[in-house]
Amino acid sequence: MFKNVYVPYKGYWSSPFCAWQGSFQNQNAVDLAAATAKKFFELRGITPDIFDSIVFGATIPQKNWFFDAPNFSSQIGNPGLSGPRVAQACATSTISIKVAAAFVEAGVNSNVLVATCDRASNSPNLLWPNPMGLGGKPDFESWMVDGFSMDPTAGTSPTGTANNVAKENGFTREESDAIVLSRYQKYADSLADDRKFQKRYMLPVEVQLSRKKTILVEGDEGIIASTPEGLAKLRTVSPDSILTFGAQTHAADGNAGMIVTTKDKAAELSADKGVTIQVCSFGFARVDKAHMPMAPVPASQQAMERAGIKLSDIKAVKTHNPFSVNDLYMRKAMGVDDKIFNNYGSSLIYGHPQGPTVMRLAIELVEELVLKGGGYGLVAGCAAGDSGAALVFKVN
């Protein structure tokens, strides 16, 4: 599908992810992303004038959101630059990388910065005009709370879609708890040796708490340790559900980015000329109404078909798994070996800021492939509207 799209080795970053109402709760996500990007440029010796476009992925409005992409570009030091904003819920990063890859493949651009950010904390509360309301009373919408309470196309909440998939596939509470424990243990691997794996890509972020106080956020915040005993004590979300609070992700804040470019430019910007990272293909799918956790499977199958590979060719799989059910279904439907499945962490454990979630997963996928000596990797996830999106990367 893509023949000429590459990513420089170490041409990417992620901030820590802070759980809802944590250290990033009062930071404008666009401003924080710009500050993190500038730090990334400084560390890598990159000047922002090398980019001829950006793709800006964000889903939750911030103050001055009308100007977010050009405002971000100005803050990073390239005021002549802008580009499209992508807002596709949980698939925002996946689509953003795909858009940048399509620009490079078509020759429209040669060096694109894909920047993604969101702040779930203190999200907007909107008043929509309603001339037919009593006395013109407006309609109210809470961006986060209402968005996570009801999918208008599914007729239920995202949790309801996970319950549907669990029931139809006969998944049990014991299976759900077991995969949560596995995912937490894999995340714990990224913390070993003083967070050695995370430090391969994660940048500490300075946060201004007041005029006189700043703090340095170096790692993820708000992670709840999973144990067999702790998971067993949790109540399910409803009597007929297998899902507990521990079996679903939490809202978070953060940012992440990636350079998408040509083969020659990737080699020039690479931190190691011996590592080549190619964006191979993209897949997208929608599944039956109210069955969102199933959507990553057909999206992944399409991405692998377009890349001309099979699951047996894949060395690592990463998923945006807001529910334990997502990975239970992918394992059942595709036969993914747990040895290659969500190593070093996934959004089920470290949280879901929406826009940058899959960007971080893709970065971790690349780093895992480098550690394994190369090969194909798959990153996939579900998104609003019972949709799913996936990307295939190849590391040499």
Walkthrough of the structure:
The protein has 396 residues and is an alpha+beta fold. 34% of the residues lie in helices and 21% in strands. It has 13 helices and 15 strands. Strands 2, 3, 4, 5, 6 and 11 form a 6-stranded mixed sheet that branches. It has a 5-stranded mixed sheet with strand order 1-12-15-14-13. Helix 1 (29-44) packs parallel to helix 2 and helix 6 packs across helix 11 (324-334). The protein is globular and about 55 Å long.
Question: Which SSEs are present, and which pair or pack?
Answer:
Blueprint: E1 6-7, E2 12-14, E3 18-19, H1 29-44, E4 53-57, H2 68-76, E5 85-86, H3 92-106, E6 111-119, E7 125-128, E8 139-142, H4 143-147, H5 158-169, H6 173-189, H7 192-195, E9 205-208, E10 214-217, H8 228-233, E11 252-261, H9 263-269, E12 277-286, H10 296-307, E13 314-320, H11 324-334, H12 347-350, H13 357-371, E14 375-383, E15 387-395
Parallel strand pairs: 4-5, 4-6, 13-14
Antiparallel strand pairs: 1-12, 2-11, 3-11, 6-11, 7-8, 9-10, 12-15, 14-15
Helix pairs in contact: 1-2, 6-11
